[in-house]
Design a protein that fits this description.
329 residues; two-stranded antiparallel ribbon; 11 helices
Length: 329
């Protein structure tokens, strides 16, 4: 579900709005550092929020891509990606439990608690192991912080701060085009890998359009909601696919084979419905040529003029705005 929340957009010292993608890049990296800069053990919610912040930062980077050199983009993107991988063991373990619980709630009459107890025990043991990973591997946490400090240092350079909204236009077009291609590939081959790639492109589009501070009314706002729902569908589908693969491993031998078989059948059934819904939403989100989509979005976006370069964000600069965003889950 979507909710409204107050959000700030940076402005420079003379009142010209800072490129919102530049602002999102900064705030995303800052938030990803802040969430793990707490006493151990790091709370589950903090790890989740750090991952969300990194995804927003990577979407912002894609919006800014045409305003920087290829080498700079590749370095910034790879280090943001590598930082996210540090958080992956927790995300993977937690998402499997969430997917299992959601499936159990939907098919409670077909999945008996007593039969599922051994499976649930293994899943929770894996999550406990992932939590310990953060408290017992300080070197990896130090590397995570080091990577993000390098990213924020590059983003603070003058050439980053001077990227104007023309780069955002081409960046958004590229993000949308890749989503169109990923959707077509998923529809053609229907593999977990193809659906996962489509999901990633949908998330980039969601976070990128989210950063542009769209009007709360009209087609642009509707598309933002459709994109959010599409990301949810594909995300749940991916987690169920991973749950099916995970429970097929030998580590789940203590679980009755018939229970695993029944679980896999229900996963397949649920994934078929999610994919059908995803393709329906995909037709709404990706129903235009990239250029026309970008034109429609920019009519409702708050961007600085392309004729004047944006300036580097300074501390304390704010301009109030309101935007629908997805709540933490």
């Amino acid at each position: 579900m979507m909710r409204r929340t107050a959000r700030t957009v940076a402005a420079d010292t003379v009142g010209t709005p800072v490129n919102p993608a530049y602002t999102l890049l900064h705030t995303g990296i800052d938030e990803a550092m802040k969430q793990v800069s707490v006493p151990q053990p790091i709370p589950d919610e903090a790890i989740h929020d750090a991952r969300k912040a990194l995804k927003k930062a990577r979407a912002a980077l894609r919006l800014l891509q045409d305003g920087m050199s290829k080498a700079t983009y590749q370095l910034e993107n790879s280090e943001l990606r590598d930082a996210g991988r540090f958080l992956s063991p927790f995300r993977d373990a937690k998402s499997l439990i969430d997917a299992f619980d959601a499936l159990h709630d939907r098919y409670r009459d077909r999945l008996q608690d007593t039969e599922l107890a051994p499976l649930r025990k293994i899943l929770h043991a894996n999550l406990t192991k992932a939590r310990r990973h953060f408290s017992r591997t300080p070197i990896e946490l130090e590397n995570y912080i080091r990577l993000l400090r390098g990213c924020i240092a590059r983003a603070a350079r003058k050439d980053f701060g001077s990227i104007n909204s023309k780069a955002v236009t081409t960046g958004l077009r590229r993000i949308y085009r890749k989503g169109c291609n990923a959707r077509a590939e998923a529809k053609a081959v229907r593999t977990p890998e193809a659906f996962h790639e489509w999901r990633k492109q949908v998330k980039y589009l969601l976070n990128a359009t989210d950063a542009l501070h769209l009007s709360r009314k009209g087609n642009a706002s509707k598309r933002l909601k459709w994109t959010d729902h599409l990301a949810d569908c594909l995300g749940y589908d991916h987690d169920l696919a991973m749950l099916s693969q995970e429970t097929a491993r030998g580590a789940y031998a203590p679980v009755d084979a018939d229970v695993i078989k029944a679980l896999h059948a229900l996963i397949a059934r649920r994934r078929a419905k999610l994919q059908k819904r995803a393709f329906g939403l995909g037709e709404k989100v990706y129903d235009r040529k990239p250029g026309k989509f970008v034109g429609m979005i920019l009519k409702h976006a708050r961007l600085p003029p392309t004729t004047s370069s944006t300036r580097k964000l300074h501390p304390g600069a704010t301009l109030q705005s309101s935007l629908p965003v997805k709540p933490a889950s």
